[in-house]
Amino acid sequence: MDVLEGRVALVTGGESGIGAACAAALAAAGADVAILYHQDAAAAEGVCATVRATGRRAIALQADVGCEDQVAGVFASVLEKLGLVDLLVNSAGVNMRGVAVADMDLDHWRQTISTDLTGAFLTSRALVRGLREAGKPGRIVNISSIHATAVREGGADYCAAKAGLDNLTRTMAIECAPLGIGVNAIAPGMVLTPMNAKAERDPSYRAEAEKHIPWGRAGRPDEVADLAVYLCSKRAEYITGTIVTIDGGLILEQALGA
Ligand SMILES: NC(=O)c1ccc[n+]([C@@H]2O[C@H](COP(=O)([O-])OP(=O)(O)OC[C@H]3O[C@@H](n4cnc5c(N)ncnc54)[C@H](O)[C@@H]3O)[C@@H](O)[C@H]2O)c1
Known about the structure:
By secondary structure, this protein is α/β, with parallel strands linked by helices. The protein contains eight helices and seven strands; from the N terminus they run βαβαβαβαβαβαααβ. The chain has one domain (8-255): NAD(P)-binding Rossmann-like Domain (Rossmann fold, 3-Layer(aba) Sandwich), CATH 3.40.50. It is 44% helix and 15% strand. It binds nicotinamide-adenine-dinucleotide. Residues 12-13, 15-19, 38-39, 64-66, 91-94, 115-116, 143, 145, 188, 190-191, 193-196 line the site of nicotinamide-adenine-dinucleotide.
């Protein structure tokens, strides 16, 4: 069903993992898709080919999502080539690196906050400015994490960025409701993507991790993408300011065993 026909989506981190799955699913649902990629142009072109195979238009644009000028350039290019962006999926992110605050240098902290939080601020602001000027509605879906609330040692940068992203989501939901722009976030648990490369490489590591997931397995990027498409669709119109967890019950386990 082409529930997103006529819509123009921008997916950050669209060349890999959850972002790539979102780009494919948004196209399958009828949207044209722009991919903001960071480093891997060939991967971004591969995702564009998947989008085009559905009959939709696709472009790939390189940028650091935390860089104001580059994000502005991406929005200008998408406007010129595909039209005004009215769906935004913020999937770009870097993971925690197991470094305690006492040992973390400022560049490390800044890189995570810039990519996982400031990036979503910059892209969301650009989307809202464009839609406000055009008087059009839209949707934002931020890919957060269960680690926004279930914190882990060695992940203060990531946990703080994702908690910030959750409150960016909630605050923008209030600000953007009068504009008809819905703002939500998805909080995945363990999803098999390059961010979890070790789980894909090492079956015993994966099995050990999956023991803690009530559903008994890690999630797939397409499962997260299906939820993103739903949150972008008319059926989810009345949902705004919500963080939707998709984790096979993993977060429920955090207080067990002690
Ligand atoms: N995989 C998981 O288990 C999991 C769980 C919870 C949340 N998440 C979140 O999902 C999102 C997608 O992660 P993924 O699992 O698909 O991992 P991934 O590593 O496959 O994708 C991350 C993407 O972010 C992009 N990126 C990194 N730095 C960037 C920058 N400065 N500018 C622009 N793009 C940049 C990368 O190029 C890549 O495309 C992330 O925000 C991540 O925190 C993932």
